[in-house]
Automatic annotation (TrEMBL):
Residues 11-429 form the Enolpyruvate transferase domain. It is found in: Cytoplasm. GO terms for cellular component: cytoplasm. Monomer. Its main location: cytoplasm. This is 3-phosphoshikimate 1-carboxyvinyltransferase. Belongs to the EPSP synthase family. The active site is at residue 321.
Amino acid sequence: MENTKTIAKARQGLRGTIEIPGDKSISHRSVMFSALGSTPVHITNFLHAQDCLSTAACMKALGASVEFESETSLVVCGHGLHGLREASTIIDAGNSGTTLRLMMGILAPQPFLTTFTGDASLHKRPMGRVIKPLSAMGAKIYGREKNTKLPITIVPAEGKLHGMLYESPVASAQVKSAILLSGMYADSPTTVVEPFTSRDHTERMLEAFGVETKKDGTAVTIEPVESFHAPSSIEVPGDISSAAYWLVAGSVVPGSHLLLKNVGVNPTRTGILDVLEAMGAKITLENERVSGGEAAADIRVEAAKLHGTSFGAEIMPRLIDEIPVLAVAALFAEGDTVITGAGELRVKETDRLQAVTDEFNKLAPGAVEASKDGLVIHGGTKVRAATCFSYDDHRMAMSLAILGAAGEGAEIERPECVTISYPAFYDTLARLQA
């Protein structure tokens, strides 16, 4: 793809039906967990994007069979819970924080050495938050900058890991998942307590593999696990984080009417629906169902007059990835929107709070102010066309594209990073505009 992307102003409403690509979080876990079973699992609607392909490559390197039938369909078969094998070379997690953090949880208890690397962005991201609790369980993990950054090497622990009670300072599904996955191999139960409940895809999928977790308030406990009973098939629902761009575009581009098919509506992920509804969006759920322990629905959205709102730390685990595109909605709403408790965004693929502030202000001068852990967005600020930068961050690129389409157009530098989670994004936008 060329190194800039021109986004045209949507002169009429966006109309059409969109098949939402598979959920990124669930796609990662479907491959990892299937590789820990001993019978073939047929995975459909898998997200064929860079991050999830990194996970597939990792599991293959560790001895699992991973066979693609098509871009979105594959069969994965492992050698059982204790059947992973030492990789013959360094494992590359690419741009994927989920791959790296969850794999550390799975590999910390293994009797062999693993070394991880990743791309330039992943080398900057904080891994101490996972390494610290795993080390407390007896894992031996070594990394750059006092065991906090890539490259990271996991050395076999002395004996079994120890179960423990861990009070996590952050509500993070990746931290929680890494500890629970290590806990499967520990000598006694392992409990993670979070300040707020983070997304629960790991717990739901473990259940599909016959592993029970116990929930008590914001605490989750796992007992040591003897074996995995893999389901014969997993259908991955569409990713609400990818649907988010169309939920916002459909709300703010006048005359829009969109139907989003097969969207995961797991309650730990639907913060975006709550916030948009609080802003006055017209969103309806249809054809609600459950697949592989995950709730899914078709979502209809049409243009509406939005107003500003405030939200903070409590809802953040349920919509952290959607903040950049929610900031677009806030820009076209009446009045101010105040976002707090989002400090986690400073350590994503880029510092998203700063990136949203710098880039949105090119398109709508003076519209966004950043605080230490949030944003204030002045709705109704005049929007103009401008050139902006993606920071090689897929969520920034897509949010800027929606802002350009809803505003006066935009030129996005380094647009190709959308392949990390939504390779068909620009084509879909062009089709809805046509």
